Amino acid sequence: MYSSNILYPVAMIGTTNQACSLLHPLCQDLRGILYMPEKLPLIDEKTLYYHSPLKNHLADIFLKNRALVFCLAAGAVVRLIAPLLKSKTHDPAIIVIDPEGKFVISLCGGHQGGADKLTKLIASYLNAEPVITGVSNTLNLPGIDILGFPFGWRRGAGKWKDVSYAIACQKTVQIIQEGGSFLWRKNFLNNYNFKFSLPDIKRDQKSTSYIIISHRKYPLDTKADIPTIQWYPRVLWIGIGSTRGASYKLISDAISTVFDQHGLAPEAIAGIASVDLKKDEIGIIKYCQIKQLPFFTYSVNTLDKVSVPNPSAIVKQELGTASVAEAAAIYSSNYFFNNDTVLLVSKQIVKFEDQAVTIAIAQSSTEYIGRKGKLYLVGIGPGSLDQITPAAKKAIAEADAIVGYSLYLDLIKSLFHPGQIIEDLPITEEEKRAERSVELAQWGLNVVVISSGDCGIYAMGGLVLEKLKNTYKKDNIIDIKIFPGITALQAAAARVGTPLMHDFCAISLSDLLTPWSVIKKRLKAAAQGDFVTAIYNPKSKTRTHQIIVARAIFLKYRDPNTPVALVRCAYRKNETIVLTTLNEMLGYYIDMLTTVLIGNHSTFFYKDLVITPRGYHHKKMQK
Ligand code: SAH
């Protein structure tokens, strides 16, 4: 079962002290178990001894873990795991780290095993070089064998190895897609070896292999010598009605018959739908269980409102709705998404002895992913990769889609994997970006929304949650998590000393979303209250007077010599720091990449440090 989550459980194996100390913190970040040899002292209660010889121990734990991370010579690992490897669909991911922690090697199970992803994440934790040798990674493409998993597509038959080989040799590959999302295409479009077409377009003569993405059953051997593979997006919704007690076999045969007659692929079924009366129909329930499909039922009233091509007066009289199969097919295909639905197959009746099954099939333009989506709001800190929390890095590594402003996405692009959907909308389109994130998560993707600093401080977080509230739908519940980041005021403070050692506040001078009168009121209160004040968004190209007014307000309540720090691009390549005073501050460059820190009445400079004493009140009271 595909999961975009980083692999779990994970076992780590070290044979020396050095190796175990390198692996131990990783175990904590990845919730892994560290196995050590008996001759070494256990590091803590979460580490375990492996009982020698290691080869026997590995045989025990091999299939119980989804990833094995070794800190050991690669050659030794190869010999140890060789007898245990079976197939790339079942083997765990195998990762090797050198004892100095300079390289992290994705040794086995790069795509389906998830080793490439985990390798990159571990490398980012260790500040090491990820070594990923798969060709698709070199070409910056997602593995063709995992391409559709984020969208819930099912993998079909075909010559997978041959098609992968053609891609590796950079031969022309024709991709014929007639359904499902196009979001995966971005990386492929930049690669001239791929030709895209719709099914009715003639096959490209130069193509050496085909990738077909369709809900129809393609004869995979149209050109016997040209390797072809197929992915099935789940876009077909079956509306079903049956006589009471229709058997599983009848249901299954009826669906197969109708699918065969219309050249459709059962792998592309998204779900089955009917009227509430059929909720406990055993044949249908068993079919859904075996095929791992959802079964939705709707009330007579709901179905009666759906306009269908073949309403039946008799059914209306008996049940209260003029259609079950067609109405349920159309309604279910539209329930999750507002999309274009086509009734592909109008109702067909399949009879066997005294039983009958009615089937209609609707096709939706958006595929059903069938997973609970995730919406993670992630703060990436001020700018450099080592100021991002390990939890945030993990969330980014696990994302199917990453949404954010391009400047911030650029700062973290080394953490991305080929195949992740990157949506970099312009900074002015925050609302759209927020809506899009909610939409993608409700669809079933793992969505990460990136903000610089902290995601809940003058950032995307609030906007996204507001949008979520407005689009709440009871069946579209998603998992929401918030990952804090180091906010600009902390980053700026850390670059200049300890200016925030006493009560402080943050004020944004941006009056785009807040009336200027409110901002002025807060500036005055902060100045009067002797708060150390961090000013965000101090000055833009068009907003230039606010910082002048802000300084004037502070000067009314604070000494002109009050220390001020202007920290621009903290923890980024072009960082600049100016230590000045309230009096002098406007003589220096301030812009939208600057945080202005204004000290309180006891803040002082010491060499090139800004210090706010901790014992402010205490000292006064002692006097
Ligand atoms: N969510 C962000 C704030 C975004 S508002 C956070 O928590 O940090 C944008 C403002 O933050 C900028 O105008 C600037 O004042 C400040 N800022 C963000 N990153 C910064 C950095 N690396 N150095 C200095 N100031 C920064």
Automatic annotation (TrEMBL):
<feature type="domain" description="Cobalamin biosynthesis central region">
    <location>
        <begin position="142"/>
        <end position="233"/>
    </location>
</feature>
<dbReference type="InterPro" id="IPR002750">
    <property type="entry name" value="CobE/GbiG_C"/>
</dbReference>
<dbReference type="Pfam" id="PF11761">
    <property type="entry name" value="CbiG_mid"/>
</dbReference>
<dbReference type="InterPro" id="IPR051810">
    <property type="entry name" value="Precorrin_MeTrfase"/>
</dbReference>
<dbReference type="InterPro" id="IPR038029">
    <property type="entry name" value="GbiG_N_sf"/>
</dbReference>
<dbReference type="InterPro" id="IPR000878">
    <property type="entry name" value="4pyrrol_Mease"/>
</dbReference>
<keyword id="KW-0169">Cobalamin biosynthesis</keyword>
<dbReference type="InterPro" id="IPR036518">
    <property type="entry name" value="CobE/GbiG_C_sf"/>
</dbReference>
<dbReference type="InterPro" id="IPR014776">
    <property type="entry name" value="4pyrrole_Mease_sub2"/>
</dbReference>
<dbReference type="InterPro" id="IPR021744">
    <property type="entry name" value="CbiG_N"/>
</dbReference>
<protein>
    <submittedName>
        <fullName>Siroheme synthase</fullName>
    </submittedName>
</protein>
<dbReference type="InterPro" id="IPR006363">
    <property type="entry name" value="Cbl_synth_CobJ/CibH_dom"/>
</dbReference>
<comment type="pathway">
    <text>Cofactor biosynthesis; adenosylcobalamin biosynthesis.</text>
</comment>
<dbReference type="InterPro" id="IPR021745">
    <property type="entry name" value="CbiG_mid"/>
</dbReference>
<feature type="domain" description="Cobalamin synthesis G N-terminal">
    <location>
        <begin position="57"/>
        <end position="136"/>
    </location>
</feature>
<keyword id="KW-0949">S-adenosyl-L-methionine</keyword>
<keyword id="KW-0808">Transferase</keyword>
<dbReference type="Pfam" id="PF00590">
    <property type="entry name" value="TP_methylase"/>
</dbReference>
<dbReference type="InterPro" id="IPR014777">
    <property type="entry name" value="4pyrrole_Mease_sub1"/>
</dbReference>
<dbReference type="Pfam" id="PF11760">
    <property type="entry name" value="CbiG_N"/>
</dbReference>
<feature type="domain" description="Tetrapyrrole methylase">
    <location>
        <begin position="374"/>
        <end position="585"/>
    </location>
</feature>
<dbReference type="Pfam" id="PF01890">
    <property type="entry name" value="CbiG_C"/>
</dbReference>
<dbReference type="InterPro" id="IPR035996">
    <property type="entry name" value="4pyrrol_Methylase_sf"/>
</dbReference>
<keyword id="KW-0489">Methyltransferase</keyword>
<feature type="domain" description="CobE/GbiG C-terminal">
    <location>
        <begin position="236"/>
        <end position="362"/>
    </location>
</feature>
